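Work Package 4 report. The design task specified in the project plan requires that, given a folded chain encoded as structure tokens, an amino acid be chosen for each position. We show below one input record used in the internal validation round.
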């Protein structure tokens, strides 16, 4: 699986998402003041490269007025297990700024040029340019500046707690008590650092894990609801449909293989 996108747009706030393939986000111009990935928030600037591993929740917020970016989606199968292993350090650090951004731009723009061509060579040349780009990033990693997250340490601690304990009862009141803050202050701080309101984030993580159980197990929906922190399976189904557009049962059905026609 391989997809390449170029975007040239005005200021926009992006919805959260996660997917079963990796993502590379390269900001050609503009500024992204808040890029949330899994449990940390980063400040992304022009010429920064963001490496996002598959299945990680991420969201970009408050892009500057006018920006250009390149986004690449790809699977392990596309690049091969050996290259995927080499990329682990890039995924671990997540944010990189090349000392020579023109080289990075050339690799990625060459992919875009081949995408526009329809001859028999285009697909293979796109892959070749992309593998060259990855090799450049891995081999020159020591020369890249790696940005540290800008998340408030208390909020990062809370996000990690939610990610690990989504199956338990989690309330703003409990979280405020744990962090020795007022509920109002914690609510504002959480939104400022993650781009999510507290209750929204808890629900997103619960539904995200419910989708995985629906996909990977044959457990009854009522059991999945309970395992993901929902005391009421009807409320779980309503929340799931509000967020995903279909019911848990319908979601599971979409994953079932189509029987062969006789």
């Amino acid at each position: 699986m391989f997809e390449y996108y170029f975007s040239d747009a005005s200021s926009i706030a992006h919805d959260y998402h996660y997917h079963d393939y990796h993502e590379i986000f390269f900001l050609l111009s503009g500024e992204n003041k808040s890029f949330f990935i899994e449990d940390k928030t980063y400040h992304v600037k022009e010429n920064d490269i963001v490496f996002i591993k598959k299945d990680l929740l991420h969201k970009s917020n408050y892009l500057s007025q006018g920006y250009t970016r390149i986004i690449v989606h790809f699977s392990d199968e596309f690049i091969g297990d050996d290259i995927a292993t080499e990329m682990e350090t890039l995924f671990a650090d997540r944010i990189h700024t090349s000392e020579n951004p023109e080289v990075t731009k050339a690799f990625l723009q060459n992919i875009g040029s081949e995408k526009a061509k329809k001859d028999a060579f285009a697909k293979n040349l796109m892959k070749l340019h992309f593998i060259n780009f990855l090799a450049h990033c891995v081999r020159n990693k020591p020369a890249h500046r790696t940005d540290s997250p800008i998340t408030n340490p208390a909020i990062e601690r809370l996000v990690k707690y939610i990610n690990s304990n989504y199956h338990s009862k989690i309330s703003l009141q409990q979280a405020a008590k744990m962090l020795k803050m007022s509920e109002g202050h914690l609510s504002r701080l959480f939104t400022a650092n993650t781009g999510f309101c507290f209750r929204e984030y808890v629900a997103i993580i619960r539904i995200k894990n419910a989708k995985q159980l629906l996909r990977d197990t044959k457990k009854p929906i009522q059991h999945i609801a309970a395992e993901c922190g929902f005391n009421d399976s009807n409320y779980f189904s309503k929340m799931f449909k509000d967020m995903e557009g279909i019911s848990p049962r319908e979601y599971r059905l979409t994953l079932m293989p189509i029987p062969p026609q006789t």
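Strands lie at 2-9, 22-29, 31-37, 40-45, 48-52, 58-63, 67-74, 95-97, 145-146. Validation will be extended to a larger panel in the next phase.
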